[in-house]
């Protein structure tokens, strides 16, 4: 079952359960996926749908930082719960050790040895780990390996 179908199914079950918070975030995610499809005038691939959901998670994390800075713990908690729901639509996240193994493979394949080779490595690595790791974390690991 694809992400879009899973969103629709979970939306129906959340509505039956009268879980307003969960229903709200699922509707938001489904709308984001559908809007992206309208923008591109085609159905999204699973990887593209994962990128849309990942984008929502990234925005949520940024909001959490803002809410904590503004001493709004209640809103930060709400965002964290929404992020948990969104994570359920993505594949299992890679551990740091698993991610380091993938980075090492990509470095070897690209023949990268210097920081200017970062683009080559990321081009190989990102499609493999799409939706399973944050780009920021991947970027830091690759940069550390190339400069160290």
SSE map:
Elements (H helix, E strand, L loop, with lengths): L2 H15 L2 H21 L5 H24 L3 H15 L8 H15 L7 H12 L5 H13 L1
Q: What this model shows, in words?
A:
The chain is mainly α and 148 residues long. The chain folds into two domains: 85 residues, Uncharacterised protein YqeY/AIM41, N-terminal domain (Hypothetical Protein Yqey, Chain: A, domain1); 52 residues, Arc Repressor Mutant, subunit A. Helix content is 78%, strand content 0%. It is built from seven helices and no strands. Helix 5 packs across helix 7 and helix 6 packs antiparallel against helix 7. It is globular and about 55 Å long. The mean pLDDT is 92.
Per the CATH scheme, the topology name of the largest domain is Hypothetical Protein Yqey, Chain: A, domain1
Largest sheet: none
The secondary-structure element order is HHHHHHH
Count of discrete alpha- or pi-helical segments spanning 4 or more residues: 7
CATH superfamily of the largest domain: Uncharacterised protein YqeY/AIM41, N-terminal domain
When the domains are counted, the total is 2
Shape: globular
Could you tell me the radius of gyration in angstroms?
A: 18 Å
- Architecture of the largest domain in CATH? Orthogonal Bundle
Oligomeric state: single chain
Question: What keywords describe this structure?
Answer:
single chain; 148 residues; mainly alpha; Hypothetical Protein Yqey, Chain: A, domain1; Arc Repressor Mutant, subunit A; 2 domains; globular
